[in-house]
Amino acid sequence: MSGKGLFGRLDWITVILYALLVFIGWINIYSTSVGEGHTSIFDFSTLYGKQLFFIGLAVLGIIFVLFVESHFFERFASIFYIVSIVLLMGLFVFGKTIAGATSWYDLGFFNLQPSELAKVATALALAKFLSDIQTDIRSGKHQIYALIIILLPALLILPQPDPGSSLIYFSLFFVLFREGFPIYYLGILIFAVVLFATTLMFGTVWVAIGLIILTLLVYTFKRASVKIPIFPVLGVIVISILFSLSVNFVFENVFEQRHRDRFALWLSLEKDEEKLDEIRKTIGYNTYQSEKAIESGGFIGKGFMEGTRTKGDFVPEQHTDYIFSSVGEEWGFLGTSAVILLFSLFFLRLIYIAERQKNDFCRMYGYGVISILVFHYFINIGMVIGLLPTIGVPLPFFSYGGSGLIFFTMLLFIFLKLDSNRLKDGI
Amino acid sequence: MKKLLLSSVVVLIGFTFIGRLSYLQLFRFSADQILDDPAIKKVYDYPERGYIYDRDGKLLVGNQPAYDVMVIPREVKPLDTLEFCSLLGIDKPEFLSKMEKARRYSPRLPSVLVPQLSKEDYAKLQEKMRHFTGFYIQKRSLRYYNTKSAANVLGYISEVNEWDLQNNPYYVAGELKGRTGIEKQYEETLRGRKGVKHIQKDRFNRDIGPYKDGKLDTLPQQGREIHITLDKVLQEYGEKLMHGKRGGIVAIEPKSGEILAMISGPTYDPALLVGRKRSKNYSKLHYDTISKPTWDRSILAQPSPGSPFKTLNALVGLQEGVIDTKTKFRCYHGFYVGNTLRGCHCGGGVRDLNSGIYQSCNAYFAGVFRKIFDKYETTDQGMDVWEKHMKSFGLGDFLGTDLPTGAPGRIPDVAYYDKWYGDGSWAASTIISNAIGQGEIAATPLQLANMTAAIANRGYFYTPHMIKSIGNNGKIDPKYTEPRYTTIDRKYFDPVIEGMANVYEYGTARWVKIPGIDIAGKTGTVENYIRVDGERMQLTDHSVFVAFAPIENPQIALAVYIENGYYGSRYAGHIASLLIEKYIKGEITRKDLEKRMLEKTLEHEYAKPYSGEPFKINEYVW
Predict the structure, then answer these.
(1) Is B17 near chain A, with CB under 8 Å?
(2) How many beta-carbon pairs below 8 A join chains A and B?
(3) Strand partners, B247
């Protein structure tokens, strides 16, 4: 295989899918931000011009990553991680505040968002830690180390405040699950989320009754040969009810009104139509507008640059977090499902690549990359189409923004670089 | 399991998204969303509303400019409030509260600060306007009336309401629409079609250019002028004569069915329903439930027609062959309804067709009526025949005019009396009041005028209408130019008309003859009752008169109905003769009669039932 150069060993399917996503994203940024006085796509005072510039930077980033020695990333993973943690802490002192969030360093020509950098670093660090010969994921101590690696940056980002980015770090649990972290932890998590939502919707009493009925049903219809010990089950029920009781407390006393309103809207908690309408117009305004914009696209869409709601700038943040609504309005169902399909293929291809790695570090890092990207994609589009409450995270490769595009690109291409070397010995 | 976890998550997310998207974009999508798309503003270009002219091309209704002072609160710079207020004619607190209201509506969008400035105020304000940033003057068009008459005929326009908006997609809130009369009937002709420009907006409601480069935009279509059949001079004169009197007058040109005058008393100046005082005036008119100025008596009042209806009974008798001109009845100063005697004022003696009509003999027509029914084996058959003849004169149903409102009147039929008395429990003698136009018959002044036109034409009429022409050469609905024939043969009309002519020569209207014009007419005096606080009381008789002239080649047929005017020739007869003279000669020779009619009012009669004191009716006070 040494006969082939670097470019021959690169996974071109992924590269093409990546390029397509970036291109489609840019087309939509162009459509939402092109004005009357449009002169040239290279006009850097416009959003689409700037994004083009960022794409250029991303390409430089790709070239840089591809020419760096593969071992570099593994060897310096810990350093990267420590540097990003320091940078995140430094924000409390030197950070620049944009739109209420102190998440940036002002570098003069460029605003650097260290939380983006930290995503790459954390993925590398986690992979490095887990692939260490001495690490045993089944040991409780090592599980806690892994959790610290993931949660430390998340905790530092949360007070910026940037709950969206913070949430992204939880995606790295997929890496843990892949590497033998017990999957029933995921089950517990899902169970907790379901309990949380159902308690808000129906109240503790009904949740308790539901749990008991469910248990009785299981005992009634299980095969006689299957034995389920009764005491642990009772224990789970008691803990669930306690959890359910705490939910109300947390919701009323820990959450702020704006959080409560988001849940009220998402789970249709508010029964008073007038109040619900009020919430819809304030907290839910973005989602309402983006849903409407997508809806108005219909099957084939209004056509490129014909999106009235998009052009009218009705959907807030539409070139960044809500870029997908522009796809919906202008390209219709055909466009949106094509993008969903493209993303799905892209992720599945990456998972396939990750699984073919012989080197543990490479596989784990790959899983980290995929988890982060999938989480962004899930939260972003889920929010834009009204399935999830409003959480501000960008759509990878699509949304306008330099830091995002460049670090997503580097995240991806570090993995592709590692992959290109998989057939060499070691790394 | 652990290898497949992430892949399954990706696939699951994909399906969920596609599912949600198909719900949004396939299921919830509807094609007419552009109608409520907040991003597209429609700017309308309103054409001028069409003018309305009378039959001689005299202007009745035009347009006048009005000036609204508009404000965009965000753009307002500090100003000399006192000076501005004095220019606008409002005080400072009012100004401040209006500004606050405008700001609350929208700081970015224009609001009306002061509506409909007069031309004088506008002239004063205009030169100073540049000192007041954030304010501007917007011109709009209001109706202008070149007459103080015909308010109910012309109708008025007003802002569209919820119902209009829901039922007619053309209208947008705030637009004007013809509400009554000609304005309503010919709304689409007069209105034209507004032009639409689609403007792309951003979320701050700022314009950012034409939508789709104006491909969907339309140009306004001018409203067209219309000419109506009304004679402005006659209409105005008739309304003057109606001063202080309640009732309705309709004049028709028999050879075309064109309505020459349509007067309802009391009336009001149409200009009251335009401009700043509109709503105040409207409430005043609308809530006057006693004299009801907005209730058009000429087409909505349905009194019993009284004696003019005798002419039709005579015609039916002749047509059915149950009488001829020589047939005689003796009048014993009355006739019987069942067992009660009804009086007759003709003086008694032997009556034939001619003197029966001109002396308005009740007994004669009771005899004719009975004979019509006697011809048939059963009362029902007789009734059906009688009803068919009567209805052929346009009575008992809507005439099909081009007026947006109207009343059907009533010609009773078999079913009506079966319901009233029970099947088979009535006969010609039971319902004999119909012979003299009392009883269950009811007709609007318009129907009476039309009936008279049919007699003038000797057997046919044209559906009465208001429209003369649309635009310059616009054709009118052909249904107004097709004759409608009655069921009476032409030859039977002449003896009846002779009787009606003799009404002026020897009969009940001999003192209202017009020198030089041959008129055929018929008086009517209609008993009537009212209920005030649950108490039924009889009022002074209604005065009714129908006439046409000249007898050969009739130019005008009219019906005059004056509430509580006493006997037929007293008010109605005089007014009819003045109108005929005015229309045919163009001037009035009998100045003293004219003066008396212009000055006399019946207000004292109308006050009687509400005075709370006992009163006399049918007084010979003149």
Answers:
(1) yes
(2) 117
(3) B265, B562
